[in-house]
Amino acid sequence: MKKAIAIVISLMFVFALTSVTFAAEKKAAAPAEKKEMAAEKKEAAPAKADKKAAHKQITGEVTAVDAKANTITVKGKKAEVTVNVDDKTKFAPKGKTIADVKAGEKVMVKYTEAEGKNTAKSVKIEGAKKAEKKAEKKMEKKEAAPAPAAEEKKAAPKKSGGY
């Protein structure tokens, strides 16, 4: 009986070692396969990057507006971009047009870049509302009367903490 148990334990030990060996071989083969797949993805990536690079966004200050040429120049953190405005361009707040955009205002422009031309899809004027709100708050503060002086409170006598 002891011999049978020893044989079964030794067989289990052998199977455990072989399974570890096979697992190590699969891990060694896996990095090679990953390298091949990564190379294939890199080849496919430039095609996707061209599509994504077409849509861009810039947030910054308007440096120039040319209503005749329908262009807006926006200076962002990294660069200055000139975009063309067409009939399809959406302005926010609603009802605004290129004539309402002024130099010095903060805007967010979403545009597409095609054949070297930047065409605006949407222009959101951000600076106008914020400036108006700040001016209103300043006026309200100036008009508000100073608060009446607080009445002095008489100090209550301290009670001793003894029994």
Number of helices: 2
Main sheet, how many strands, which sense, barrel?
Answer: 6 strands, mixed
CATH architecture annotation of the largest domain: Beta Barrel
Apparent shape: flat
The number of distinct structural domains comes to 2
Topology:
Layout: H1 2-53, E1 55-66, E2 71-75, E3 80-84, E4 90-92, E5 106-114, E6 117-125, H2 127-143
Parallel strand pairs: 4-6
Antiparallel strand pairs: 1-2, 1-5, 2-3, 5-6
Task: Describe the structure in your own words.
The chain is α+β, with helices and mostly antiparallel strands and 163 residues long. The chain has 2 domains: 1-53; 55-141, Beta Barrel (OB fold (Dihydrolipoamide Acetyltransferase, E2P)), CATH 2.40.50.320. 42% of the residues lie in helices and 26% in strands. The chain contains 2 helices and 6 strands. It has helices at 2-53, 127-143, and strands spanning 55-66, 71-75, 80-84, 90-92, 106-114, 117-125. Strands 3-2-1-5-6-4 form a 6-stranded mixed beta sheet. A hairpin with a 4-residue loop joins strand 2 and strand 3 (80-84). The longest helix is centred in the first third of the chain and has 52 residues, at 2-53. The chain starts with a helix and ends in a 20-residue tail after the last helix. 8% of the residues are buried.
Concise overview:
This protein has 163 residues and is an alpha+beta fold. The protein has two domains: 1-53; 55-141, Beta Barrel (OB fold (Dihydrolipoamide Acetyltransferase, E2P)). The chain is built from two helices and six strands, in the order αββββββα.
